[in-house]
Each structure stands twice: as C-alpha cells, then as structure tokens.
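Protein in question quoted in full.
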Amino acid sequence: MEMIPAVAESLEMDPKKKLKDFFGFNEFKGNQEAVIRSVLGGEDCFVIMPTGAGKSLCYQLPAMMLPGTAIVISPLIALMKNQVDNIRGFASNSSFAHFLNSSLSKTELARVVDDILAENTKLLYVAPETLKKEETMELLRKIKISFVAVDEAHCISEWGHDFRPEYRRIRQMVKEIGDVPLMALTATATPKVQYDIQKNLGMLQAKVYKSSFNRSNLYYEVRAKGKKEQVHKEIINYISKRTSRSGIIYCLSRRKVEEIAEMLKMNGIKALPYHAGLDAKTRAHHQDSFLMEDCDVIVATIAFGMGIDKPDVRFVIHYDVPKSLEGYYQETGRGGRDGMQGDCLLFYNPNDIEKLEKFMKDKPVAEQEIGGLLIAETAAFAESSQCRRKLLLHYFGENFDEKNCNEMCDNCAHPKPKFDVTEEIVKGLESLKSLNGEFSMTHIVNFVIGKKIDSIKDYNHDKLPLFACGKEKDKVFWKSIFRLALVSGYLNKNIERYGLLSVSEGGEEYLRNPVKHQMAVDVEFESVSEEDFENFRMESVCDEELYAHLKDLRKKVAKQKGLPPYVIFQDPSLEDMATKYPITLDELANINGVGRNKAQKFGQAFIEYIEQFVKENDIERPLDIVLKGNAEKSVKKKNIILNIDKKVDLMDIAKQLGIDFEALVDELEQVINSGTKLNIRYFLNQFLEEDLQEEIFEYLRTAEEDNLETAFQHFDGEFTHEELQLMRIQFLSDVGN
C-alpha cells in the first residue's frame, strides 16, 4: 500500500515521545515499537504477543497519532468497556474513545454517533455482531478511518480456542468500509491457527511480529481433581494463603460457577460469579467490583477476562480442564500481568476429558476430530512429567530449554525420578517408521504394546516384526516416550490430518546417532466419576485419645448445665471434632450435628480444649479451615421450618414434600442437630396430654443414654417409638438449641 501524505507527516512524530507524553512510559516493550511503526507506515501486520506484553498499546498509540478514527473489532462487551475506561484515563476528554455494542441506550448511542461524526473519536471499539449491521456500516462510510485492528484474532480460526463465526466475515466487511490498513492481534496462535487467521483476513503477505510466548513469572501446577469436598477444601486453603489477593477461577458450566462462588462466600472469601446467564448489568457490576478490588475472586466461565486489564491477578485456578491449550494459555495469561509472580493451578480428572469428548458427539465429524485433538493436547500437558513450560511453548511452535524454567512449574520444582530411555526412544521411532505412514499416538502405542484391536488388524500391523516390541511396558510409559520424542523434535505432527504422527528428519538423524535421554514416566490420574464426585464425604481417622477427653469434657459441661451429656453434643459430633480439630466457633458450627446455635451455647470449652490439645501434641490439622456447606439453604429444610412456623400438620407437610412420615421425622432430627429451634408442640398436643409430655421430658432430663429403645422399655410400651422420637426432638430443641 502506498503511503499517503497524512501518514508520512505523522511519521515525523516520534512514537517514543508520544509514548512518554500520553502513557507516561519511557520505553516500549518487546516488539511494540516495530509494530507501531509498521501501522504508522500503512502496512498490514499480524501481531502474536502473549497476554501482558502490551498488545493494546500497538493500536492505541498509532490511533492517537494518525488522522481519522481507528476501528478496533473486539469480541466482548466487557473488554470494550474496560479498554475504553482505561484509555479515557489518559485522554483529555471522554469522546477520545467509544464503543458500539448492544449495551448502549438510545441516548448513549446518539452521543457516540455525534462524537464520531464530529471527528472527536480516535478509537472506536465495535463488536463483530454490531459491525455487520447496515446502520453501522453506513456510519463508518461517512468518516475517515485510519486503520482497522482485529483484536483476539484467534476467534477467526476454527482451530482457535474461542471460535466465533462472525469473525469469518471481517475481511468482507472491512472491504466495504474501504481500502484501509489491517492489523490482527492475538495472544495465542499455533502455526496452524496463524495461517488460518492470515488466510481468512486476506493478509498472507502481512508483516508478522511474533514475540516469545514464555511468561517467566507464571508458576504452572497440575493437581489431581479428587472428590468434590476435597477439591473445595483445597481451593479454600489455596486462597486463604493468598489473603486479599486477586484471583480468577475458571469453570466450564454456569451451574458450577454459581456453586463455587457461593461456597467461597460461605467460607469468608469475597467472591462473585460471572457468566453469560447473568444479565448485562450484573455482569458489568461484578466485573467492576473485581477491577475496583471490592471483590477478591471472580468465578467465571471462559467469557470472563479476555482483554481485561487488571495487572495484579495473583492466581488463576482451572476447576475444570480447559477445552484446549490455547484456552489454558490465554486464561492463565490473566495472571501476573504486572510482571510479579502469578500462580496457575489446574485440577485434572480424566473423567472431565471424557465428558468434553461426549459433548462433541453431535457435532460434524470434522469438528469432532479437531476438538478431540485439542482436548488430547490438554490431557497430554496435564499428565506429563516433563517441564510444563517447555510443553506449552512447544505447542505454540517455540523451542525452550527447560533449564531456563527456574523451577517455575511443579515438574521442575519437584522432579520425579528419571532414568535412561535412549533405547526405548529408538524402539519407538523404529516402530513408527515400520508402519510406513502417519498414525495417531493411540494407534502407535497400541502397536508397541501389542494390543490386537480392530484398527491394528485392519492395517495388518499385528503381522509386522516390531508388533508388541514394547509389551513389557504399559501404555502410560509409551505415551510418555512418544510425547518426549515429539517435544524433542523427533516426530512430525500433521495438524491438517488431525495430529497424525510420523518420524521427522530430526528423528531419522536420532536413529543414526542416538544421544542419551532421561525421562520420568507421566502421571496416570485416577478417574473420578460425577456420581463419586457429588456423593463424596471425606474419609478420615478419629483421634481416639482426643475423643475420650471430649467425652469427659462433655460429661463435665452437662453436669454444670444440669443436662444429659447427649444434649450437649452427640457421639458422632465428638468423633467429627476428634477428626477435624476445630479451634474456632465458626469451625465448630460446621462439625456434623452442631450448627451455629449449639456452638455458641456449649462450644467455647470444647474449642479451647481442642486448641490446647493440638498445641501440646504438635498436631498438624488436616486443613486450617473446615469447609462450610450450604445444607442450611436446602429447599426441603426451609419448607419444613416455614410450615412448622405456620403450624401446618406434620402429616400434611410430609404429603406436600412427597415423603413418608418416617422420613419427615428423620428430616426433623437433622434440622434439630444443625442447631435450629423447632416448636412441634401444636402437633404433639393432638395426641399427648400436657402431663404426659412433662413425664417424658422428665425422663429425658435424667436419662444416662440417648436410646429410644431403652425409653420405650422404661415406659412399658405406653408410648409408641414415634411419639418418643417426636418428644425427644422437642426436648433437644428446648434445652439444646
């Protein structure tokens, strides 16, 4: 493109001077200056720059320097608002930057249009969905456009982690506006994605600026995703050690987002949910709360964070396994954008991989193949015992020496034992070479271990001399070997053919001159089913010595209060205390069968005793916190309590809930055990005279054990088990809660 006079004139202005005058920075970072000079020169350019490296400056500064308005096509309303607010902080007036999207009212829209037509706006952010509207195109044809920037350009590629069909029409829409320079920017692009973006935007000849993907200040860690309560406790412990620090937790479903956010709030962590199911006003409010530090943790689907300029996010947790490594890299890239350390924790469960694969079963075959490959890459990253930084950068086509990781991933900080695998790499490469073609890793592994499945027999590979040459090792070992060979450059991966592998030139050279390689075998994670995950209760061992002391203490407190010991705390509650060692009333309130009221009423002596016991015996508590659940918010329990307050007949309550009377009585016991007061005398009065109720109460006050059968025998069957159980519930409510 020929340089127009206005552009040439603007080049006389020094970008460094403008950087200092406008943004207050003395120096550019990385490729920023080269990109900006390219844009000022009217060239098309493609910018691949990791999150936190300053992509937005690459179009913000030239927009300010060039005549006309720069159009920035951006995928999220949240991103636009955040960037516009940010740039207005540097500009002299609010008309300098605007956005056009569906969130604007008619009045706001009219003001934006007036500012654009008056040539007061240098930066205009537009959603792709808004850009395709005829009224938007009509407006843009009336103004001088300096250039068009496509931010988060990976959305163009069907191979990208956030595919957006609207992005595929951008080139056509830009052409309708006029012949203007085009720039595309992304923080994640494998070679395949890069080519796909450039081809779709018609910019194969564009200047490409590719920065290193290495974020040296991010620490990568993968943990096994065990049972639900266990993971929740790990998360709370993890965040509790980072008090008042900002963090993001990513989940794949809206339901999970709400559940985790609620769980965090109940455990004293300032957290808010963010997902597409919330209305725009709520989403904006939650985002602003996070940016303004009124909230420490955002629990979100992947819709949150794209382009959000919050530099001090100290941790990023993936509760669910991401759909792709691009997505993982982009999302972890929200952490540590100020250059300080950011911690990235991924919880991994192979069952999550299976669920992701099932979600794709109704999609077209080609899309299933692409999605399956992306998911397999994520699984390989999570399961690997190699340097995670090396694996991640290799995925983006960048070589990295793991010695430079500086123990900033769990595999380098806590390396597993390594052993020589030179012979096995040779055996693996020779095996693949003998297949005479390109094959998936699964196929190659099955060939080496000698698994006679249909796909092996279809190719007659079970007849080849090297079939089962590695049968003495399992599939986890051979997967580790082939992943190591891939990262070492001994294998080619054909992305066009869904990641099929073949021996590379480097692999051929290795077979001629093998060099020594050491390896730790990858981790085989236990697959936890959804049912196990939901129904799990922590298994633990009761401290028998503490349990015996607590029983003695209960007897002492009961004597002081003039109550039977079981009214204070029942045996299962003491067992739970002797397992979890609660040392605050809040922790005690979450012990099985205690609740807030009972903790306040009887708990002080117990937590003081337990704290002393922990100190004297140098006990490391299982967790510093006791996870608070939201059982008290159960709809069923709420209905029961409300109906009893209204004096509804218990029989009618059971019928309304669709349960039998016996089940209702069990529910009443649970409500009482959680420390809630109930008054069911209105029901008891229907079949038990007041003096009979007092007789039963007198027995319960003096009973040495909490046993209904003993009570039944004491009264020679004068009262039914059901009547005694209901009276016991009322008694415990009156004297214990």
Q: What stands out?
A: Confidence is low (pLDDT under 50) at residues 1-12, 532-540. The chain is about 50% helix and 10% strand. The chain has five domains: 5-210, 218-413, 419-519, 544-616, 631-736.
